[in-house]
Amino acid sequence: MSTEPTVSGPDLTAGIPIAQVPEGGMLAGHASGKPVLLARSGGEWFALGAVCSHYSGPLPEGILVG
Q: Which of 4, 22, 46, 50 has its C-alpha lying 20 to 30 A from 63's C-alpha?
């Protein structure tokens, strides 16, 4: 059984169109072989590891609050 998280979505190191992540939205992708979650909220952009550090769950399946 592999413990490596699944990498899917666009390669974020290549860039994406801004419109691909609407205000209040999220996008799952990858960078350097690691899953990444992009979020856009309040005019700011956030990029974080896409796997929950506590339970190893997929953050892109969650909701964006605040």
A: 4
Beta bridge partners, 6, equal none
List strand residue ranges (DSSP E) for 1-66, in order: 26-31, 34-41, 44-49
pTM of the model: 0.82
What per-residue confidence (pLDDT) applies to 3? 60
Strand 34-41: give its sheet, edge to edge: 26-31, 34-41, 44-49
CA-to-CA distance for 15 and 65, rounded, in angstroms?
A: 25
Give the HSE-up count for residue 47: Cα atoms under 13 Å, Cβ half-sphere.
10
